[in-house]
Specification:
Elements (H helix, E strand, L loop, with lengths): L1 H17 L7 H10 L2 H13 L4 H13 L4 H5 L3 H13 L3 E2 L2 E2 L1
Antiparallel strand pairs: 1-2
Amino acid sequence: MREWHVEHMQKMIVKYVKGLSADASGWEKRNHKKYGSLAYMCRQIEYDIKHGVAQEQVLSMFHKVRNDLSFSELRKTTGSMERLGEVEDHFRKPKIVAGRLY
């Protein structure tokens, strides 16, 4: 089951960084509006972390998307690196819970 969560995390990152295509249908636009926000995507990745994905795996996926040759087409998409930066910022910053840093 842990492998499923790792794959799901990878798919969610790629889907968010890719964004909505210019020729998206009405159905795709509605789904993107509902499920394509930064908050929804971060919530999904946090769920995967809760179920066995290591924080290092998430950070290595960010590094892979930013530097790996297999994601070169993804990086060419307009605004993709800004979206990747937003997600990275969310997972790199320490979380404050009840007055403590975690």
